Amino acid sequence: MALRTAAPQHPSETFFVSANDYASEALRLMRLHRLDSVPVLEGQQWLGCVFEQDMRNAPSGTLKEQDVKAFVRACRY
Question: Which string of b and e fits 31-58 if b means at least 16 CB within 10 Å?
Fold first, then answer.
């Protein structure tokens, strides 16, 4: 899994993750890129966002078992 951008030729564009990506990997990449949230897509459909704080506060070990979809909240970008 990797953070993806809607327009690879424009790195300043919004990054997103897939709903089926592992939450632990999304959290690792958000920390690496110093992002506190990223939008989540399921196919071409916008689901919402995941926030670093929500995943950081999850019980230990659950991030490796859950996909990003478990942490989606409403947001605006």
Answer: eeeebebbbbbeeeeebbbbbbebbeee
Dihedral over Cα of 17, 18, 23, 24: its sign: negative
Task: State the Cα–Cα distance between residues 35 and 32, nearest whole angstrom.
Answer: 8
Q: How far apart are CA 34 and CA 70, in angstroms?
A: 21
Q: What pLDDT, in 10s, does the model give residues 17-57?
A: 999 999 988 898 898 888 999 999 998 899 999 999 998 88
* pLDDT recorded at residue 11: 55
CATH, range 15-71: 3.10.580.10
Q: What is the pTM of this model?
A: 0.75
